[in-house]
Amino acid sequence: MSAFKERDLFPISTEILADGTLTIAGCNLSRLAKDFGSPLYLYDGETIRANIQKLKGAFSNYYPGNSAVAYASKAYLSRRFAEKIAAEDIELDVVSMAELQIAVKSGFAPKRIHFHGNNKTAEEIHKAIDLNVHALVVDSMDELMFVEKIAATKNKCVKIWLRITPDIRVKTHPHIETSAAESKFGFHVTTGEAKAGIQYALQSPFFELTGLHCHLGSQIFDPVPYRITIQMLYDLASECGYTPSELSPGGGWGVQYSIKDPVADPSDWINNICSAVVEQCNKNLMPLPKIVIEPGRWLVAKAGVSIYQIGTKKTTPNGLRIIGVNGGMSDNPRNALYQAKYSAVVNGKITEKKVFPSRIVGKFCESGDTLIEEIDLPETDRDDLLIIPVSGAYQLSMASNYNLAPRPAVLWLESVGNFELLQYRENPEESFWWA
Ligand code: LLP
User: Fold this and answer.
1) Among residues 263, 260, 254, 258, which one has the least CA distance to residue 221?
2) Are 297 and 219 in contact (CB under 8 A)?
3) CA distances from residue 201 to 158, 160, 251, 289, 342 in whole angstroms, order as listed
4) Helix (H) and strand (E) counts for the chain?
5) Which of 162, 255, 289, 354 has the most CB atoms at less than 10 Å from its CB?
6) Statement to judge: residues 205 and 253 lie in one domain
């Protein structure tokens, strides 16, 4: 048996067995949950590698110039995970000292690292400059002056990009939109700060302005705002007499979380970025830049699944069936924060009729602790395993210890009997900071 309705949301190597249970990379999910406990998070190595190749392939198809795919490591990072993806010949976007340190320890040469952030500390700026990262992505005029001061003390010329904010709206949840006039990120175009930043950076002996960057937001399914932004970046560059040798339109391409979501092919995104850059270079008589995209979610979300054990079940006076699982907003705050909608299956009952509209809630002391607002499920029993696909991005990286919950274990799956622990389950007896 290989097909079921939600199949396309799961990692490539997922199989359904005759008893209605799932395997990923040949590993039995019930067995893993038994051995490692739940909640449990899994990453499928094959899916991550295929996703990287898909994006690189799109660049080979659509762009005659140089390009790079960088992984936005805030989506999920741990030491072993970073080592795995460092082997895949991609670049890395980091935003904190710890992400930077893990990246370097895991084999990312600093020339493959871009350091982002809207309020970098002096310590972070010193470290990024001392390591000679590929680009320190400067976020404001204030920060430009601050970085210049630090660079001057070292008498160093620092490779920078400027993050430009186009002051346009994109269609996504407001908490993950970063393109608009009220955004805390970047040099805004409409205030004139973007132009002033470029002009300032060009005349400073302490900067080599290698590129311009923009990140519009996340879960975006429309390539048009990327085209508009690229045109805006070239208009700005040309006004300043500047030719960028690198151009980064950021990440943000959306993924399907449930079968009701739109399916958007990232080749279409990359095709639009490439053709807009070529068009602008032709118009402005500039050479093609190296294009650097930096997706987080698109590379890892679908490679990840989370597994929970079902506990209590109740029906509210208005007939809502509520099913409690042994994790929740502490390992996945995305419904609480963005009303994100997920899909789920019950292991062993995947092909059974889904006749019960249900709400999946966590075990934490907060009414907003919901994983799925409404989903049709078959009859469930205590100890059944609920498997939520598309769990690889911004779940564990935003996890908390609310109610002193231990963060779950994470495994990387390769093939039958070939998996690795990426992150151990926190142990309240030993590894907790409050113990
Ligand atoms: N580049 C920059 C500068 C970013 O700030 C981000 C994400 C990315 C790239 C990658 O974006 P992606 O391709 O993953 O959409 N916690 C939210 C998402 C926050 C994204 C933050 N920045 C969520 O769970 O939806």
Assistant:
1) 254
2) yes
3) 10, 9, 24, 18, 44
4) 11, 21
5) 162
6) yes
CA of 288 to the centre of ligand 1 (A): 26
The whole domain housing 239 covers 46-300
Residue 14, strand partner residues: 24
- Report pLDDT digits (tens) over 240-260: 999 999 999 999 999 999 988
Q: Which atom of ligand 1 is nearest to the CA of 395?
A: 24
Residue 414: exposed, middle, or buried by beta-carbon count in 10 A (0-12, 13-18, 19+)?
Answer: middle
> Is residue 80 a contact partner of residue 412, using CB atoms and an 8 Å limit?
yes
Which of residues 275, 300, 325 is at a domain's end?
Answer: 300
Whether 1 has a pLDDT exceeding 80, the answer reads no
Are 351 and 415 in a shared domain? yes
Domain total for the chain?
2
Q: Are residues 290 and 320 in the same domain?
A: no
- Calculate ∠ Cα 86-87-89, nearest 5°: 80
Annotated catalytic, 365?
A: yes
* pTM: predicted TM-score of the whole model, two decimal places: 0.97
The predicted-structure confidence for 214-239, as pLDDT tens digits, reads as follows: 999 999 999 999 999 999 999 999 99
Ligand 1 centroid from CA 296, angstroms: 6
d(CA 234, CA 283): 9
Please name every residue paired with 93 in a beta bridge, in sequence order, or none if there are none.
Answer: 72, 114
Whether the CB of 297 sits within 6 Å of ligand 1:
yes
Q: Which helix (H) or strand (E) holds 229?
A: helix 224-239
